[in-house]
Amino acid sequence: MExxxxxxxxxxxxxxxxxxxxxxxxGHRFPSPQGSSWYLGDDGTPWKDRNRETxxxxxxxxxxxxxxxxxxxxxxxxxxxxxxxxxxxxxxKENGGWYPGRTPDNKILPDKxxxxxxxxxxxxxxVLLAGRPGAEELLDEALxxxxxxxxxxxxxxxxxxxxxxxxxxxxxxxINANMHTVEAFLSVADVTGMEKYRxxxxxxxxxxxxxxxxxxxxxxxxxxxxxxxxxxxxxERPDDPFKPYGATPGHGIEWARLITHWALSSCGENExxxxxxxxxxxxxxxxxxxxxxxxxxARGIVYTTDWNGxxxxxxxxxxxxxxxxxxxxxxxRVTGKQRYAEIYAEFMRYLDEQVxxxxxxxxxxxxxxxxxxxxxxxxxxxxxxxxLQAMLIPYCRVDVSIACxxxxxx
Length: 410
Fold this sequence. Notes:
Layout: H1 10-26, E1 39-40, E2 46-47, E3 52-53, H2 54-70, H3 75-87, E4 101-102, E5 112-113, H4 114-130, H5 135-149, E6 151-152, E7 157-158, E8 161-162, E9 173-174, H6 175-192, H7 196-214, E10 222-223, H8 249-267, H9 271-292, E11 304-305, E12 311-313, E13 316-317, H10 318-335, H11 338-355, E14 366-367, H12 385-390, H13 402-409
Antiparallel strand pairs: 1-2, 3-4, 5-8, 6-7, 9-10, 11-12, 13-14
Helix pairs in contact: 2-3, 2-4, 2-13, 4-5, 4-6, 6-7, 6-8, 7-8, 8-9, 8-10, 9-10, 10-11
């Protein structure tokens, strides 16, 4: 195995830094005139015939806040552009909160999504850390809105979707929005010191661990309004980009990292208290890797499996590989087990040989079972959030959020 794929070598550090810098350069053209994010095409050119979505705008605000902390030229103005969008055309003036986005002809997209609002919180906390004007006000407003409409204190979980006016709550409950809520809450706690958000993250995590443990460490993604797992959801649309049927191994991997972060940040030096959560994280990661990594005769991580671990959608999504890089590195740091370093190196080689676009930049967002480019779920390269974080997390502290870790490292 080449040294540039092996964790804790100078070659690997340099490899990640080069990709990191290339990603930050790739995303420069995201801001529309009003600040919301264009959807980026294969070479980073904006696709202006697609919706300008809030969650992508938030991701770009987050990554360029990190870019600002890293000293990447132009990052401050890009963060400010995204803030313009979040405080302007994406913001719902009449009913509060943020629209999911705008259409190419500037109409609003309907509903109010927990997923998008979690990303507003993440973006605002990172922008605050980067010291950009208006960040504190944005974060305060986002937290107040989220607490009012999405967080359910009695359940210790967040609901998923309201209508645009915040008068009708959809009965669907989903764990994806709760996962990004955990990410956002941990960031808020790290940036502001408001520990109630770390405690809330822990409540969500305990639910997820319980559901996963009962399901052979495959996390149910979809639920009824009273939080009963709906294991047959979208069987007829198995490659849905946000609500796919079956288990999503990439989410098991991502949860493993978030659980580890929460456990170490909550338990401090109390290793005994943290250990059950670290073990749960290992179980989630190992189950996902066993089910999905090189599972069908070709390299890569399959998008979904059924409840017995048999691949359903064989496509390889770039974000899944990014999270696999992150979590294998984090588990190596925390446990010292060499097998995590070994699979990290495998992931890095696969990234270099199959997923990195060495011509146009960034990562191919979707490959088929034979690692040929596809565009059925994720055409183009919508944002750089997952990929950028994967080039940073392997060498950052594992008990704080990524933006905080980057700032500390600087």
